[in-house]
Amino acid sequence: MISGMSLLERIESVKQAALSELRAAGELPALERAKGAALGAEGSFTTLMKELGSLAKELRPVAGKAINAAKQELEAILAEKRAELELKSSLPKDPTDFSLPGRRRALGQLHPLTQTTTDIVRAFRRLGFAVADGPEIEDDYHCFDALNTPADHPARDSQDTFYVGTGPGKLPLLRTHTSSVQIRVMEKQAPPVRIVVPGRVFRRDNADATHNPTFQQIEGLYVDRGVTVGDLKGTVAEVFQELLGNDVKLRFRPHYFSYTEPSFEIDFSSPLVKKMGKEWLEIAGCGMVHPAVFERVGYDPEVWSGWAFGFGIERIAMIRYGINDIRLFYENDVRFLQQF
Ligand code: DAH
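# 3,4-dihydroxyphenylalanine complex -> structure
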């Protein structure tokens, strides 16, 4: 039989040993081990509790109280220590040096062709034009027939056009110009029409400094009563001055397109063009919409008149930024792209 006094003493010394073990724990696993050694199934306190049974009846409450008080003290220290170690383990081992210079995140920017397209579209919007869209995979009806381009026209040759399927019926192809969208819009909408259509087009050209098998165009179409070539010239001049400066000069040269009559090519001159070693650069095709085109879409050519144009966007971007090779736009070399 163990005397009451000696048990109380043992409780105190077991408690002190457990406390110093808890306090000494430098990391969470060590703390958990110290807790187990004191309060676990085989722990020193559990053993003490078991000994209570062999104690004289009158001593049990005193001893039980002492053990419970000691356990509470241990639990409090344990909680405190656990909070401290959890905080410690959540902090970085190598603390941040706030005096180090920051790492700058490289910001991307829009592709120069996107920037140019956005600016052209903005200039036309200001004049009241809406933006229209159409499919890149077209058919020969919208790309050619409806534009009054007959089946034996050289543009329809498979040397020039990417066909993506066979007949019978309409032939699917990659659109060779955005003019196909003129037809799609007029098929759906009654006049008046005032649209621009920026978009990608495709031709079977070998890539060189001025050709690429895919490039960007912007189409314009204006249909109303009494529209004249004067409106066309005025509109185009306004937009080019806004885009490329007030010192631009435009020249309309007679040309042929099957979907316009009369037709013109627009030549462009400015100090920027002269810097490229040229006097005039051809930048667009245009003309007054052919009556046969209006008839195809059900517009009465006696009532409605209109003009249309198509520009190559790369051409304009090349003048703007002084770029001498169209392929640069498609290589997407960041050293090139970073400059815009
Ligand atoms: N589609 C022509 C081309 O790709 C450009 C063009 C010429 C568009 C005259 C037109 C136009 O709308 O009226 O070269």
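# post-check
The chain has a mean pLDDT of 91.
The beta strands are 130-131, 137-139, 172-174, 193-202, 214-224, 249-257, 260-269, 281-289, 305-312.
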